[in-house]
Inverse folding.
């Protein structure tokens, strides 16, 4: 009997110490469906964009600039995924989404929502500070179907013009993460319209709540930039403006800026950014 007890104890200890299964996460500015994009229009890119997700076995990803038609195009091409988010102009379907997609065979959505990066975050369509556009953040609490572990995923797109809007937007994001994550591991994705050396990105990581996935990754691959404007920007001048940030208890095994082209055509004017992560015990 003692031997059986010891064996059971050993198995339980080994299981407790075993790392949780990893996740592949991504941030992907899809570029809105603009008829003026010619050969780079969404109708020519949508299959390639979906293939990026499936070929890299992405479990959960945040998007930017997705219009309602694009959202449905992606869901049609990504069976087994669901999405949460609303249009930024009316809180329903008008305007760009910061949609969060996740695999339904792996996760159950516990709760989710969207707020606006403005002085009135619950007011749909509200414009914040000196921002040129309405800006949102979409979040979801997801539960792993096998382990029961939960995490807090949030995706955003900061303003491309307003410096105050970017600064105050980050402050709001940090407050909401603290208030809403409930102590769960946190993943923040998005297009921050700011380079790594900027005050905006320093603001995100300054208090230690979040860490740039690239900075803490065991392996780093891909280009040092994430925005090429469909190749119009000279390679040496292309900025990195798309990010994955992680909270404590998240290990980043690999970070990679993926190519912005596939099969001879662009997937977007931005390159997707992905990270292979694990949740670890404190």
């Amino acid at each position: 009997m003692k031997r059986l007890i010891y064996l059971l104890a050993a198995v339980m200890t080994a299981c407790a110490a075993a790392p949780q299964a990893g996740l592949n996460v991504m941030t992907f500015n899809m570029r809105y469906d603009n008829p003026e994009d010619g050969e780079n229009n969404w109708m020519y890119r949508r299959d390639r964009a979906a293939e990026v997700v499936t070929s890299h076995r992405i479990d959960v990803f945040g998007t930017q600039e997705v219009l309602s038609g694009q959202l449905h195009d992606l869901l049609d091409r990504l069976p087994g995924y669901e999405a949460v988010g609303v249009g930024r102009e009316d809180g329903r379907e008008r305007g760009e989404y910061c949609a969060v997609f996740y695999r339904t065979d792996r996760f159950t959505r516990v709760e989710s929502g969207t707020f606006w990066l403005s002085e009135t975050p619950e007011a749909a369509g509200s414009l914040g500070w000196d921002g040129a556009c309405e800006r949102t953040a979409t979040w979801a609490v997801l539960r792993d179907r096998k382990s029961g572990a939960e995490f807090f995923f949030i995706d955003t797109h900061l303003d491309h013009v307003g410096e105050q809007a970017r600064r105050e937007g980050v402050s709001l994001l940090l407050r909401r993460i603290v208030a809403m994550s409930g102590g769960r591991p946190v993943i923040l994705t998005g297009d921050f319209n700011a380079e790594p050396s900027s005050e905006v990105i320093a603001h995100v990581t300054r208090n230690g709540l979040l860490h740039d996935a690239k900075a803490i990754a065991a392996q780093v691959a891909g280009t040092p930039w994430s925005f090429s404007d469909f190749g119009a920007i000279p390679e040496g001048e292309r900025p990195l403006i798309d990010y994955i940030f992680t909270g404590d208890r998240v290990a980043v095994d690999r970070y990679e800026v993926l190519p912005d082209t596939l099969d001879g055509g662009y997937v977007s004017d931005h390159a997707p950014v992905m990270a292979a992560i694990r949740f670890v015990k404190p």
The helical segments are 2-17, 42-55, 68-77, 163-180, 199-206, 213-216. Residues 22-279 form a domain with the Deoxyribonuclease I; Chain A fold (CATH 3.60.10.10).
